[in-house]
Structures are given as structure tokens and as C-alpha cells.
## 1
Amino acid sequence: MAQDSAASPGKVPRTARGRETLRKLLDAAAAEFGERGFHEASISGITRRAGTALGSFYTYFDSKDAIFTALVRDMSARVATTAAAAVSEGATGLRREREALVGFLHFAREHKEIYRIIDEAEFADPESYRAHYEGTATRIAARLAEGVQAGIVRHGDQEVRAWAIMGMNVFLGLRYGVWDDSRPVEEIAEVAADLLGEGLNRR
Amino acid sequence: MAQDSAASPGKVPRTARGRETLRKLLDAAAAEFGERGFHEASISGITRRAGTALGSFYTYFDSKDAIFTALVRDMSARVATTAAAAVSEGATGLRREREALVGFLHFAREHKEIYRIIDEAEFADPESYRAHYEGTATRIAARLAEGVQAGIVRHGDQEVRAWAIMGMNVFLGLRYGVWDDSRPVEEIAEVAADLLGEGLNRR
């Protein structure tokens, strides 16, 4: 989702300055929800962090629920953009999955609050939670289908594979991104790509 | 965790009847927390579902937090037991992972509340949340190491692999266990085992 469509219906900013305020509010919301959790977070906490007036909040959002939904969708879109940006031009199949994972692991380290926010959406905004994972899995399945077309990925059930790969990435990001970032991202991605590319079986 | 050690310290049941009451309370807690979430759930809701007196609750647990922690650990132990029980005697390597996944997918379908409960532990009881995943990953890594010993699994970083496989299983359980159980469990496990065994690369 482009950040300027993150506002509540009828509240889309029309100026560069408005878009900047909206971005500040979303970043402040990430910090507020990430640190305090959905229930404890407050609109005044968000505007204080953003350094904006309370009125600015209501210029763009109807409620705490509305900015939380916008934030989940914004983070979901940023995960997609980050993964896409991390992939080299023309990379397909395993190389593409590996580069996307490297991008995601860096993102998770830089935005550790993302897990808490997405995971809390399971309770505070189940629709956005589901949309995030369904959207991500659909993108992975499409990448795999392109890899099959290119002749480098084996035929198979791309939907089930996509959910498996997404789960793998999410848990590697939790363990080696959020909880402990002491190991090089490339090292984690190397093990994952080897597992995904060649499998476990000794030949 | 054995169910009779699930009670609060000093409150372990000493009779078969006591253990039965404790089990009833844990099952009722799974339904109460699963349906209403941690914040809305109440001790009286749990005892009503269990058909026990309020006094019985305090015979075994100190608080709502205490039974929630006991429940997360009980579910975590049941996931471990279920996966172990689903594996044929002597199965190693990929066959073992596949059978464990089949067991887990059945468990997720029969206990759909488990996701909500474990996921809510991230917020309500982070220590148990972490212990659940660290414990599960440690078991998977140990299984893989045995597979290497047996000469059927390729050498590699078993810890990273274990987190990848666990994530895969968790997301397949969410998608094909909890959200939509229309596809046969064996079919999902077949795709996952093929991916895990042979990898994506066309040869």
C-alpha cells in the first residue's frame, strides 16, 4: 500500500507536507504499538512521538483502530517492497528466494517491532493479519511458478510450497533477526537456501 | 510437561481425582482463552466450563496468569507428545519429519484454539512463548542430527534448519489446519516432505 492511501477513507493527504505528516504518524504508531502493545497504546502517545498536534491525527485517521489497520497494511507493503528490492534484476528460482530472505532478515533487524505488530493483528485486526500472510504467500507462489517456467524450479504445488517458505522466513526472522542478531544475515540465508535448493536428503 | 506438574507451586494434585480436576480445568481454560482471548477470559468462565467450584480453581492455580502459563506449557508438551507419537518406530530423517508433520496437522485441526493461545502468549507470557519455540526447535535439530548419524541427512547447520522446518510446519498448520481443513493432511505433508527432501532445484 502506498503510504498516501493509508489514511482513513476521505482523509487522503493532497500535499507533500500532508504525506510527510502521515508518514510521521505511521512511524510513531509503529514505535507506540511496538513498545506498548495495542491495548496500552494511545492516540496521544502516537502524536507525542510524531511531534504533531492531536488535530493532525484526526485529519488522517478516524481512531486508534484505523491507524493500527493502516500500520499493519503499511508494514505488510514494506515487507513486500523490501523483498522485491533485495532481488537482483533477472534473478529467478532459488537465487530469488535467497535474496528476498536476505532483504527480509535485514528488515526484521531494523524493524524489530514488526513481529509484535503483525502478531498482535491476529487479535486486534484479524482481517489485516490474514491479508498480510495471504498476500505474501501469493507473491512467493508466483515467483516459484516463474521459476518453473524458466526451467530451474521443479514442478509442484506452489501454494503449499509458498506457505512452507513463508513460514521458514518468518521463523528465521524471529530467531535470527529479532531475538538474536549476532550471526551474519548471509550465513542464515545460505543455510536456508541450501535446504530449500537441495533438500535434506543425502544422495 | 506432565499435567500433574501444571499446577502452581505447592498445589500439585496428589490423587487421581485431583489430577482429573486439573485436566478439566486446563481443557476448560483452552476453550475459554481460545474463544475469548486472554484479556476477556475469566476464572469464573473457566470453572463454569469445567463444571467445578471456584474453590477447586484455587486449589491448583494462584491466578488467571498462572493457569494461562500452565496451559501454554501443557499445549507445548502435547504438541511434542503428538509429534513423537505420530512417528513410526525407527523412522529417521525425512520420513520422521514427514510423520511428525502429519501428527501436528491433525493436532492443529482438532485443537484449532492452539494458535490463538500460543500466539497470545507472545504478549501475555513471553517466557513461555519463547520456551515453546526454543524447545520445539531443539527437538527438531536433535532429530536431524540423528539423521546425519544414520547417514541419510546431509551435514549442515541443524539449528538454522530446525527453525526453518518449525516455521514451515507452523504456517502449514495455520493455513491447512486452522483456516481451511478441506485438503487431506497427507497431501500437504507430501508436498512439504518433497520440498524438504529433494529441494526446489530442477536437476
## 2
Amino acid sequence: MKRRSLFKRAATAVTLSALLASPLVYAQEKFTLRLAETWGPNFPIFGEATKNMAKMAEEMSDGRLRIRIDSANKHKAPFGVFDMVKAGQYDMGHSASYYWKGKVPNTLFFTSMPFGMTAQEQYAWFYYGDGMDLMQEVYEPHNMLSFPGGNTGIQMGGWFRDEINSLEDLEGLKMRIPGFAGEVFAEVGVNPTNIPPGELYTALERGTIDAVEWVGPALDLRLGFQQIADYYYTGWHEPATELQFLVNQDTWDELPKDLQQILRVAMRTAAYDMMIQSVHENAKAWASIKEEHPNIQVKNFPDEVFKAMVEANEKLLEEAAEGDELAAKIIESQEKYLEDARAYINIADRAYLNNMAEIE
Amino acid sequence: MKRRSLFKRAATAVTLSALLASPLVYAQEKFTLRLAETWGPNFPIFGEATKNMAKMAEEMSDGRLRIRIDSANKHKAPFGVFDMVKAGQYDMGHSASYYWKGKVPNTLFFTSMPFGMTAQEQYAWFYYGDGMDLMQEVYEPHNMLSFPGGNTGIQMGGWFRDEINSLEDLEGLKMRIPGFAGEVFAEVGVNPTNIPPGELYTALERGTIDAVEWVGPALDLRLGFQQIADYYYTGWHEPATELQFLVNQDTWDELPKDLQQILRVAMRTAAYDMMIQSVHENAKAWASIKEEHPNIQVKNFPDEVFKAMVEANEKLLEEAAEGDELAAKIIESQEKYLEDARAYINIADRAYLNNMAEIE
């Protein structure tokens, strides 16, 4: 059986099964799943989410469900995770859905959309709205299940060496900003480039690029941009970057019901935990940046820039929806969900945060 | 053994254990835990959190860990949950920590504090700051473990029949607002009363009270306040109401490691899920209230009211910290955590929500 070859099975239970035809003993079969993650070894926060998930699954199953994590240095294919899990070379993956946009355009919608939902709103859409069903509609033809895999919170708009006061200031600006957000920025005059993370600091320092978008304080701090750029812009392009667990469908079908549920809950908890850990790590990092670099100014993009980006985003979404029924359905679902969720969040979270900021 | 009597044990595994001295088979022992919740049967959102937790635990353990939920109509002691779990009459409870303030004053700090942390910030304090350790320090002498049990999100400031324009307007105002928030309100002139939920609507309609604080749109909608009050005030007093799972320490010690971990993760996920479900249900309810009652105005308390409440809150906290080292330690930990977390949330979530509101 091809499917069986996906697993390493332990023989422990075999003698018992032979002795006693009890379903309790049958359930003791052991499974080791192999997971490929896009990140390098010991990548902070993102890589902790996979380890957290694996630890919970192993402990809850009393060792019956083990997950062996291969980082990018091992499998050498950070952006091959989709294909490897699809083909069954790996049972699971940990990555980001929008990386597969070139292969399957509608995977774009399950990470985070410019001007879109925040983490809480997006989890609500996934778990209590239509999000999970729509995501599964996109992944099913590729023999995979997809689950939320951890949230970074609102990504910052990036580090700029010069202040942005107008649309003109963006004209020809060289900026590291990949993906769909880069396309939006390109529409308003920016020259988006993609540069490997290890070269970003030097590129910004030497003026090869004028600005760089990375993640948020916790991960940005480690790359050192605060030492060479004075302007830190607030976020717009990825308000709730959700990572993703992929599970090969055959692997999933092979697991007994209790281990499926253990895996499902471990992934769900690890994802939520990462959202909360991101708040913690970002708070710590931002406190340290503020203290060591009091010169750094947090800025919002000027209104005209914001408006131009919103328009560019709408134009690109319309293009995506054209001739693709599923894309149109997903975009509509997200926009409708966001409308109601945000109306409530505005009278709850936003009002509270603003009132509190005023009395400080 | 007294401890053993807490459990109903299934005999299924006994023959196997006799046959084979295998730890795998030993682990098949079954446990049924009894949980008392403060809420009535089918209480929305709060009661769904316990059912969600029990379902996850049962499915992940393949039926080895069952949780039998007794609602308040059964055990007749909604505010006796602390004592019943402490004494081992129940293995678990689902309630809110601040209900035990009269018994153990420092339980106050683990639900939500006026002008305090939001749900994400508070989860970060619990899980990545000192929150869990401090909470355990409070509950350990009572032979219990305490875990986060689900968040309502920011509670609204309440329904008022008349607009509040000054501190004077609060003078002698009769309002349903219980607990510590009621004490804060009392300091600024309000006459706080506690009225059973079933009588609130009539009390507000007949003018027995002038205002009522309940939870947020989802739960408020069911009580119908939107039909008889025009002013809905934004929140300040419970920015992140966290419910609580209690577990009797002897019960916990009796569980094998894998079931402890299954229970821990099921509680953690159910708590997070409730935070997300609250966003969903509040968004739906607020959309419906807005549509059916377009006359309703969302208001912030005037600055002078806000400032007076902040001062009253600080005064009450100082009193709580006086002569109680643990209280002082908890208050300091929360204030310090909030400072850094909010500084980050202000450049991330608040900036984003404000920018988005401006372009609408």
C-alpha cells in the first residue's frame, strides 16, 4: 500500500493486537509524521510554533504521534513545501499560503490581505465564518488539508531612511517588499525588489534600497534596521499574517480519529499561541528599540498615499476576481465579514485603545 | 483512598492490566470528571466554551477522559463553584475568578481590571509573562489549579437612557454594575445595584435603574436593552473579561501525564476559541442592533468622567495593595506588562484601526 509507506510504524502494539482483538489496544499504533518547514533551524517565533505543536501532539498522544521537523537547511526547498506535501514526500508542512500564489493563485487569500482583517477578525472568519471551507476548496484538489499555523499580528509598514510626505516621495523608491503588497506599492510608483534576508541590512545601509519591510519589532530588531533608518511606518499591507500547516490528505486519512483530533487541536493551539507570543515578543522588542534608539519616529503614511494604495489594492483584487469564480467568492466573503467585524471592533477595541491613549 | 473516590473508573482495562504489565495498557484507564459551571444550561458563548473543551478532551483521548458538565440549575450553587472544587465535590469548575474576591481577595486580578489589558495583551501576560505563576500562587493554597477559560473581549460600558455629559450626570445614577467596577463607579457618584439578569429589562424600562452594564452586543441583544435605551457607552471597566477553569489538585494529580496534557490543551484552546467566537457573535449582534435600532448612539464617557474613574481605580488599587504583598506584586506585574504591551499595540493595532477608519 502506497499510503502506508508514508509512516514509520512502531511494532510495540503488534503482540498485544495478536493476543487480544481489542480496539483499545489497536489504537496504540504509533505514527511518525515528517514535517517540512519553510524556515531555517531555530527561526524565532515561526519555528517555535512548529515545535510547540509537535510537543503538544506527542505529549497528548503519549508518544503515539510524533512529528519530526525538517527545517530549510535540511530539505533545501523552503518554497517547495507545497509540492512536497502534495506529493507525499512530507506528511506535513509549515509555511505561508501566499507563497503558492504563482502555482495556485487563490492560495493568496489565506495569509493576510492589504487593508484586510486583523488577527482576531481573521480567526473569526476562519473558524466561525466561511474561511475554513473556502480554504479547503482551494487546497482539496491538491490532496491537502490546510490549517491556520500562527499569526504575526499586524506587520509594520517598514523602515524608511527618509520621511514620506507625499506620493511623489514614493516615485522610484527602491524597497524590499515582496508579494501582493509589492504589487500594490508598484502601482503607486515604488520599485519593489526582493533581496535575501541576509543581505537586507547592508543593502539598506549602502543605499541599494531606500526602505525595507520585514515583519514587526521582534523580528526586525534582530536584523538591525533600527540602527540605520529613522522612520518606522505603521502597517497596512499584512494586518494579520497567518502562517499555515499543510497536511497530506492520505496521511490524514491514515490516522485514527483520536490522533486526527489531537493533531487538529495541537495545530489550532500552536497557531493561537503564536499570535499571543507575537504580542509578547513585539512588546519586548519595541521597548528595547525605543530605549536604545529614541530618535526613531513612528509615522503613518500621508492620506494621499494611503488612498492611492487602497485604490491600487481594489484594482488588483478586481483583476484577480475577473474570470475566477472562486476568487470572487473568497474576496466577497472576506469583505462582507470584515465590514461587520470592523464595525464592532471600532466600538470595542478601537474606542477603548483611543480613550486609554488620551488619558495617558 | 479518598482521592480515588473522585473518579468513576471503567473496568475495561483491568483484565488487560492483569494479563500484561504494559504501561500502554495501563494508560487505558478511563476517567469521568465532573464540572460545575456558574452559568445556566445553554448559556450562550460561556456555556459553549465548556462543551467545546469537553468535546475536544473526549475525542482526543478516544473516550478515556470524559467531562460531565453540571449547569447551575443542577448544582444550585452558581457562586459555590470555588468551594465545591476546592472540597473535591466537583473535579472542575467554569466560572470567573473575580467572583471569589469576597473569600480570597487576590482572585480579583485574574478576570479583567478596569483600564487594564485587552484580551491579547492579557493572554500574553498569562502565558508569556508572569500571569500563570501569579495566579497559581493565589489558587495553590486552596488545592486548585486555575486556567484561563475564555474571553468575552472588551465589555461595553453599558446602556444608558440619558446621555452622560458630565460628572454631575452620574451623581446618584442608579446602575446595574457589580463587582470592582461598581466600586469604581460608586467613587464617582453612581449608585451601583445588583439585580438578577431576569429582572434587568423591566428594571430599566420602569426606571428602577437608569443604566445597565451587561457584557457586549451578543449577550446584551438577547436581553433587549436596545429597545429601551438609546445610548450605548464604550468600555473601560472590563477590557478583557477572562473566564476561568478550576481543577481540583487531587484530581489533576490522579490523571496520567497524557490526559493532563489533553485537559490542559483542551482548556487552552476552548479559551482562545471563546475569544474568537466573541468577536464573531458580537459582530453579528451589533450589525443587527444597528439595522433595527438606527437611533442608538455609541458614546464615549466625557473626559472628566474618564479621568475621575481612572483616579478612583488607582485609589482602590492602592488600598488593595496596602498590607498585602502578593496583591502589590500582582498589580505591579500587570501595570508593567501593560505599559510595554500597549506601547506596541498602539503603533500596531491602534494605528492600523485608526488609519482604516479614516479612509472609509
